[in-house]
Design a protein that fits this description.
193 residues, alpha+beta, Lysozyme, 2 domains, 4-stranded antiparallel β-sheet, 7 helices, globular
């Protein structure tokens, strides 16, 4: 097998890895969802899993307005905060993250595979803040959160789960919806008041 010069070998190797990691052929990895008005954004966390039926009872639908697939252990992600698109992720998303621990990487893989199969664009998010924080800005934001008493861990320039939790704590104290998103506007609010 030559994964460096043979596409068939590379694809076979990737498929084997995903299979060994627990990929379930008949299940979706992630889908874009519509969150109801009044949704508690603090629930949208990778480590907060519920059965899809639980999310349905809260008014969450797929982006087309249809019922969610009846799968266990579903989480909702807001990669661009409350103004961006919302995604529900399932077991196969975790398998992709076993390959690469970046949520953005896993969402990109899912979106690219959806494009190959259905050519469906991401629908929501027209009001999202499009500019991401730079590594240095994220580092500074983490330091400021720590300084204010919101434990984001040792600053590392990456918006991991601990940083998101610190942002949610800050947002709760400011009566801001708790989406945990390290947005440019949050950066401005904290570092350039």
């Amino acid at each position: 097998m030559d994964i460096w010069t043979s596409l068939p070998d590379a694809f076979a190797s990737a498929a084997n890895y995903l299979s060994e990691a627990g990929w379930r052929k008949a299940e979706v990895a992630a889908l874009e969802v519509h969150l109801p008005d009044g949704f508690d954004y603090s629930l949208a966390q990778l480590n907060r899993r519920q059965h899809a039926l639980h999310w349905s009872k809260l008014g969450v639908l797929d982006i087309a307005g249809n019922a969610l697939p009846e799968l266990a252990e579903a989480a909702i992600l807001l990669p661009q905060g409350r103004f961006g698109p919302a995604f529900m992720v399932f077991h196969n998303f975790d398998v992709i993250m076993d390959w690469n621990r970046s949520v953005n990487y896993a969402l990109s893989v899912v979106h690219l595979s959806n494009q190959f199969m259905t050519d469906k664009p991401i629908i929501a998010g027209e009001f999202a803040e499009k500019q991401a924080l730079s590594f240095n800005q994220m580092w500074a934001l983490q330091g400021k959160l720590n300084e204010l008493g919101f434990d984001s861990g040792q600053p590392d320039g990456f918006p991991g789960l601990k940083t998101q939790a610190a942002i949610r704590q800050y947002q709760a104290g400011q009566n801001i919806p708790q989406d945990g998103y390290a947005s440019p506007s949050l950066y401005q609010r904290l570092l350039n008041p």
